[in-house]
Every structure is written in structure tokens, then in C-alpha cells.
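Can't paste images in this forum, so I'm doing it all in text. The chain is below; anyone willing to post the predicted C-alpha cells underneath?
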Amino acid sequence: MKLKKVLAVCLVLVIAAVTIVGCSKDNSKTTNSASGAKPDTTSADQTAAGVTKSGDSGDVVTLNFMGWEASPLETAAVEDGIAIFEKAHPNIKVNYTPGLAGSEYNAKLMTAAASNSMPDVMFMMANAYRQFVSKGALLEITDKFNEEFPLDDFIDSSKTIMSIDGKVYGVSSCTVSPILYYNKDVFDKAGVEYPSSDPANSWTIDQFREVAKKLTSADVYGCYGLETVADTLAAQIISNGGARYSDDFKTSTMNTPEVKEVLETIKAVRVEDGSAPDATTLDSVGMKAVQMLETGKVAMLIDGSWALQELAASGMNVGMAPLPSYGKVLTTGQAHLHCIAAGTKYPEQAWEFVQFLSSLDYQGSLVSSGLWMPNRKSMYEDDMVAKWYKDDVHGDSYKNMLDYFQNAMVDPSALQYSSKCSDIISEETKLYFTDAQDIDTTLQNIDKRSDEAIAEALE
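Text version of the structure:
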């Protein structure tokens, strides 16, 4: 009960105070705050929110903190969070450096690790976490979890990602999952019934294909997003009884009938059914996938749960539903972690900051805005949901899917040992989807190249 009371107070205060700035569309970049000034947070406010002051003032410690530019909202929230943290910890300053995401970010961080010049605290992509741990680059923090910050309060997918042989080297920031979005106006115009948000009544992949064909016209594509490796492909493979990796995640296992069926189905939706554009179509019209859905050029979009923030802000008439299933109804969950460099000179101050980044007083506004989903079990209880759930963001269908998100399967990319594997899958499947390569060659190449990348990472 003590934990829930603290979390509840955190959510009320932060959603009221931080969301005002964090959810604005001001994309300006300033040192610590999107508005250019640090929040005027009183000591009483900090104490109520569970933010504790540092010890007696003395030498000021500066922590170098590195992340990426994921979205204006997330960057603003990081900067505003830093301002709140610094005010509560006057002898700790945080120097935040956002940069490129994806493989470029991982490469830059790996170079820093090799030269013993890593930042004190950093975003760590889930698909690179185990590789950095194997290199001894991250500080073990297993002993930092306690009654007030319990490891067992994290949902299973987040806890599984964090734990390596019973030890923890980073704290999961949140959770994100692929989801089916749809433009209600397009459905209404076509006279097609909405998909159910109840996982027990969700569509099969065959039902999804039939609806996509009905919604396709000269001006509208029925769907998009089935083939996106980072967001959706793993869930479809697991739903069909396949696997991307062996049980120890040291071998690629994509060359199987189950995976082959998924890839052939995805291609059939575009080529045989004519229901989906390819990526070059989006490039030619100069729109992102989310914009295609917003403008009604695509009726259904499979994308990450983080897309909800942008869709809600656009004011479009959007609905949400579980992914179409090949057998088992499921989604996958993962998110970046907050980690501390093994070589930091300031491990205690770095932990104070990581604990703050993992707390509800930082996470609350991002969950309420739709960018993130909570990764703590306590946040899925009814009284806590009432504090972060916003009708104008989450709509009337999201609550039906809370168990679906909370019980998500771990995204397998987060448990393997080389971040190159996701890039390899993307490169090889693109060749297949664009008719530059046959399916058997594609799957053989994925396994061969991925096995080589994992072996290299484990050297």
C-alpha cells in the first residue's frame, strides 16, 4: 500500500505540472526546459512527489547523460525532468546530449565504450543492452532495488529484458507495443464495422485481409505496417508459432515454415490483394505512415504504441485494436533502458538520477500523453489507471487492451546479443518484398548473417 500511495501522489502532481510543458508542440531546444526556464517547484512539492534532496551542498558533480532525439515530446520531457531533478539535487548537474537513434547511436556508444569515454548515464536500446553487458561496459545495479523500488513491480516483459543471469544493469524506461490503429471516418464511409478492442474477439489475419480489401479503393489503401521489423514482425512470427532466435538467443531461427508463411502473407497483402502500399509510395507522396492514416489515405495502420501521442494530438477520429493474429492473440513489449557506465566516477549520483528517470514523477506525463505505456504492475490497477488515463488521448477502447499490453511477450530483439540483427532482417526482407530476392534465399541470408553478427558481438 505504501508504494501505491507514493505512486498515486507522483502521478497527480506530475500530470498536473509537467504535462503542461511536455505535451505542448513547442519544439524549441533549450538547456534544461522546453520553455527556456526551470520549473518553479517548491520544496513541499518535491517532498510530496517523492523527490528527495541530496546531502549537504559541496562540490557540484556533473553527470554526462546521452540519449537520442526520438520525438519533440520525449526530448522536452527529458529536459524538464532534468530541471526538476537538479532543483531537488543542488549538488548534481546533468549535461544532456541527445543524438541520432538506431544503429548510428549504438555505434557511437560502442566506440565510446572501447575508448573508456562513455557518458555516466545513457539511454540504452534494448537490442544492444546484452551486447554492452557482455563487454563489461555497464554498472551492475542489482542491489539497488528495495521495498520502495521493487524489481517485482515491473511487468514480466520489462523485468525479463532487465535481468541477465539474475543480475540487472539497467532500468526499463517504460514499455511500448505494436498496435492496430484505424481511421474511423474511412470505416464509416465504407460501411465497414470497426475491429473489436477486446483481444478475445480480435481479428485473425484472414479477417484482417478481407477487411483491408473492402476498404481499398482508388484513393485509399486498406492497410500499412505489417512488414515493419522494429514494430510488428516479431509479434506476427510468435503468433504463428515461429521464433526469431534459439532459446539462448545465440542463433537465428528464421528459416522455418512458420516464418516463411508470415512473410509470404505480408507480401500477398500488398501484391495479390493490392491493399497496402510499399515504403516507396510513402516516400513519393512525402508522408509518414501516421500521416497517411490521419489523412485517410490508409484505413488501418500497424505501428508502435508511441504513435498514439501524435494521433491523439492531430484530433483525428482514431480507433485502436489488437494486432491480427495467425493463431495466438498477442503483442510484444520492449523499450529502452536507463543505464550507468561501469567506469563512471559518480556511481551513487548516477543511480539517484536513474532512479528518478524510472520513477512516476518523470514517467507520468509521457504515459498520460500516449507516448509511453507503464511498465509497473501497480500502474495497471484500477485506481492508478484512473490517474494517468486520459479520455481525449486513449479513447474508449484502450482500457479493453490493458491486460494485452501488460502481458505482452518480450520482443526477441531485446534478448539477443547484436543490434545488427534487426538491421539484417530489415535489409533482407526488403529485398524479398520488392521482388529483388526469393523467400528461401532471404531466410537463409538472415540466419547466416545474423549468426555471424551474434558471434562477432560475443567475441
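DSSP finds 21 helices and 13 strands in the chain. The domain at 2-175+334-406 is CATH 3.40.190.10 (D-Maltodextrin-Binding Protein; domain 2).
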